[in-house]
């Protein structure tokens, strides 16, 4: 299968090229040439499949020209070596826990798969790839973890000094080996600008093979469709309509959901839960897409004022606004409401939900109130472990959070970072002398 750019000004490319390039030359994002619909008997027997078996069924149609089934199986086993439980809160309310990966956020799915795929394509060559990532928190550690210790690949993380949480900084700076953390004296936008400049610097690109670990990479997007199939496999009463509530930022997780739908997964509705960065909600209300500067909130991984996957969603639905509006319901919530959601979930169900999941919960609740459509399988995607947002949650519910071992272990390690200014010249020097 070929992968084409949403801007359609370049020729379609192989999966390998799409993964290595990250973004198309015309500035567009890659999408698969088609979305193969899976067979009826896959869906009618789906509860007999493990997560990794589902992954093979779903990914194989896209990748079979370039990655043989046995190799794909190995890639899947290495990438998804953690569980994805569906927790029942009540008859019609479930939480799909996507935080059981090594860095405690759903980004482990995409980042670990991308790392295995790149490493597969590099095998046997003496090429060296430099993955650049600007991060404001979760992305950097998920990418670093995925690529840690893989031969031929060096990861360079740029994060804004003093602007990530203490836990996040530990997660970003304690890897060592092929992971380097650059602590930029500037903000997240400076980090992003420097990475962009590196990609457009001719001299630098002639010397080094640079690649992006950014979330728009197609190898990070495809695996984000897998857990929707798996959640469907786990629900008990498949006769009831399935509704997914997705806490959204860059809309990559939601795009994964829409891929699952295109491949035949029977989903009645998708809910896009947003914080005060409500650009996508406004689009669904008015048909107008007006990107804005980012507002800081307590669900900070969703603080995106210009969601890049919007153009993928539009393209997947042939720019048909009515169609998009009919399948996606959206609401947005303030920080105060989000804290209310954390408290309510704890009080009603005894469940600790993180600020991102709480937005998903509130959006699903609104949907149920506005659409009294009888019983459903409501599934909230819980995208991060509550321990990552300890202060907010302990403040809301007045209880201590137990920190998982895999997070605790990096908290005891020594921070190693190289301080640089926000001048591109310094990044350039660093890379050339790597
Ligand atoms: C990245 C992230 C999101 C937002 O996902 P998108 O794919 O960018 O919409 C939500 N929650 C958490 C915890 C995240 O890390």
Main sheet?
6 strands, mixed
* Strand content bin: 15-25%
Q: So how many helices? A: 20
Number of strands: 13
- Overall outline: globular
Biggest sheet, strands in spatial order? 3-4-12-9-10-11
Radius of gyration in whole Å, from Cα?
A: 21 Å
Mean pLDDT: 94
Helix proportion: 40-55%
Q: In terms of per-residue confidence, which ranges show pLDDT below 50 for 5 or more consecutive residues?
A: none
For the termini, the CA-CA separation is 36 Å
**Which distinct ligands sit in these coordinates?**
pyridoxal-5'-phosphate
- Oligomer class: single chain
> By helix and strand content, what is the structural category?
alpha/beta
List the helices and strands and how they pair.
Elements: E1 3-5, H1 15-21, E2 30-32, H2 40-44, H3 51-63, H4 69-79, E3 86-90, E4 93-97, H5 107-122, E5 129-134, H6 138-147, E6 153-160, H7 166-173, E7 179-185, H8 188-200, H9 202-207, E8 209-212, H10 218-221, H11 226-234, E9 242-247, H12 252-262, E10 269-274, H13 279-286, H14 310-316, H15 321-327, E11 328-332, H16 335-349, H17 355-370, E12 377-382, H18 390-397, H19 405-411, E13 418-421, H20 424-432
Parallel strand pairs: 4-12, 5-6, 5-8, 6-7, 7-13, 9-10, 9-12, 10-11
Antiparallel strand pairs: 1-2, 3-4
Helix pairs in contact: 3-4, 3-11, 4-5, 5-6, 16-17, 16-18
The protein binds pyridoxal-5'-phosphate.
Describe this structure in words.
Helix 5 (107-122) runs parallel beside helix 6. With 434 residues, the protein is an alpha/beta fold. The protein has helices spanning 15-21, 40-44, 51-63, 69-79, 107-122, 138-147, 166-173, 188-200, 202-207, 218-221, 226-234, 252-262, 279-286, 310-316, 321-327, 335-349, 355-370, 390-397, 405-411, 424-432, and strands spanning 3-5, 30-32, 86-90, 93-97, 129-134, 153-160, 179-185, 209-212, 242-247, 269-274, 328-332, 377-382, 418-421. It contains 20 helices and 13 strands. The strands form three sheets. It has a six-stranded mixed β-sheet, sandwiched between helices. The mean pLDDT is 94. Strand 6, helix 7 and strand 7 form a beta-alpha-beta unit. The protein is globular. Bound molecules: pyridoxal-5'-phosphate.
